[in-house]
Amino acid sequence: MDLESIECVSSSDGLDEDEIHQHLHNPQHPSHQHHHDFSSSKPRNNVTNTAGIPGPTAIAPATSVHELLECPVCTNSMYPPIHQCHNGHTLCSTCKTRVHNRCPTCRQELGDIRCLALEKVAESLELPCKYYSLGCPEIFPYYSKLKHESVCNFRPYNCPYAGSECSVVGDIPFLVAHLRDDHKVDMHTGCTFNHRYVKSNPREVENATWMLTVFHCFGQYFCLHFEAFQLGMAPVYMAFLRFMGDENEARNYSYSLEVGANGRKLIWEGTPRSVRDSHRKVRDSHDGLIIQRNMALFFSGGDRKELKLRVTGRIWKEQQNPDAGVCIPNLCS
Ligand SMILES: [Zn+2]
Ligand SMILES: [Zn+2]
Ligand SMILES: [Zn+2]
Ligand SMILES: [Zn+2]
């Protein structure tokens, strides 16, 4: 891998000489990963424990039943089919497949007994969303809670850093600090940018070659990704922007990217994708500026031994946010 040889040279608009050399950081885990302690970020009366299960003050009558619905092996909430051994010890269906037919609690043979009573009790429960302490006010029947939580607007964001399996989650301000401090990501203020990507050996295109820069403008944060990968048989470079926030808000912004030299240029204009969409998902949907390697080398000039791409761009806020599919009254009458 040749990660150290790509560098991002950035400068403010038009000031090419004012170059800041920024080496690509090793896309490995930051040495001190940690999870944001949400329960302390917003003081509320209702406490949640680490599993996000409402504490005693959330919904008092359901608490003990809720504890019964926690799998004693993996501590996740149990969903049908809930299993039990001959002695009545319960466990979830995922754990059942893993314990080789032995009850993890009493070591007796497990058999195939379903705990229908507990399943029915669960059906009658109503519980607050797991992200209650982050501001979600919703209360759900036990069995639909999980579905909501997977799309809850208050759920934390994953670290947007690509190229590593970073497991850090948190809200946007926390993740911005995490990107800066733990991943040493380059931070820029302003809605225009002018970057030069330099790579000494452009013949090597690996999936792991990428760059991330964070932009701060309009009171929001945006991730500019630049990377090289193999698209089918063809080595390509790709640049795209992700919005650090939800999809609905991302639609309020647009961005453009331009790359070129020698009287030719490629222009991309698009809507930033939310960081809710994984870096890989955006990349694989080709939602960004894609530059074939031959074109990239042409733009680089010289003897094609070195990749030197100047990517300029701009982020702007749309005047209004016409939701896709929603009629504008004047046009619909
Ligand atoms: Zn389990
Ligand atoms: Zn047992
Ligand atoms: Zn929620
Ligand atoms: Zn991270």
UniProtKB/TrEMBL annotation:
Pathway the protein contributes to: Protein modification; protein ubiquitination
Alphabetic keyword roster: Acyltransferase, Ligase, Metal-binding, Transferase, Ubl conjugation pathway, Zinc, Zinc-finger
InterPro entries: 7-in-absentia-prot_TRAF-dom, E3_ubiquitin-ligase_SINA, Sina-like_RING, TRAF-like, Znf_RING, Znf_RING/FYVE/PHD, Znf_SIAH
Keyword Metal-binding in record: yes
Annotated source species: Rosa chinensis
Ranges annotated as biased composition (Basic residues): 24-35
PANTHER family: E3 UBIQUITIN PROTEIN LIGASE SIAH, E3 UBIQUITIN-PROTEIN LIGASE SINAT3
Domain (SIAH-type): residue spans on this chain: 124-184
Highest taxon, organism lineage: Eukaryota
Listed Polar residues bias regions: 40-49
GO molecular function: ligase activity; ubiquitin protein ligase activity; zinc ion binding
Renumbered residue ranges of the record's region Disordered: 24-52
GO biological process: protein ubiquitination; ubiquitin-dependent protein catabolic process
Protein name per UniProt: RING-type E3 ubiquitin transferase
Reaction equation(s) it catalyzes: S-ubiquitinyl-[E2 ubiquitin-conjugating enzyme]-L-cysteine + [acceptor protein]-L-lysine = [E2 ubiquitin-conjugating enzyme]-L-cysteine + N(6)-ubiquitinyl-[acceptor protein]-L-lysine
Enzyme class: transferase
Family under the similarity heading: Belongs to the SINA (Seven in absentia) family.
Entry's Gene Ontology cellular component terms: cytoplasm
RING-type domain segment(s): 71-107
UniProt-listed Enzyme Commission number(s): 2.3.2.27
